[in-house]
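Morning!

This is the sequence you dropped in the shared folder:
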Amino acid sequence: MTSSEIRILAFVIVCVSAQFAHADTVSLEYSGFYDRLKRVNKNSYPNAELVFSVPLDDNCKILSGSITTESQNYPLTYTKQQQIFLPFDAGLKSDRGLVNIEVAGDASQCAIAMQVRGKTILTHYSHNQLQRILDDMNGLLDALQGFPMKYFRKPLSGLTFEFSRDNQQDLTMKVDGVSQTISNKMTFTTEQVNYVKQIEFSQPPIMISPWVN
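The structure's back. Tokens below.
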């Protein structure tokens, strides 16, 4: 091997090492997730769900994930939007399971967000469907608050629909037959939900989230 080849090889090794030098792993007790999932699962909320996610940030890009106990190792499922899926499993809690997430940057700069999201992703929504999503979100948030704090929680002010930024076509929406162009986010207040009969989007939203004024 010539001296120039050695220098090239050394450069490649340095570059590869630098790529993984800042990778970091955060490990969290599964029991904390289980306790929140247990509250949610006490009642049925078919139109809303509890979502765990890691911020879409270069420092927090997920490289890999796992759920481990002293004797078992399970892969962690996650999406490109960095939403992570956790099972509701009493065994993992009793076995003191850990949720391990390897991120590209400094794990201390990242956090796992717990959010309520709409579960019904469609292009058409009737008044009743919108109302059920709103009601289930309120119910789920009450369950997470617990007694007595749920009685002091301010009800949701509406729903926000978020659409993909990747689509180059104009987004349009029809409200009771009247068409308009919209941005990648559209919010309906509870008052609007009360009187609207039907809404129709040119493409399905990627996310429905609660809105609090």
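Headline: Residues 1-21 have pLDDT under 50 and may be disordered.

More detail when I'm at my desk.
O.
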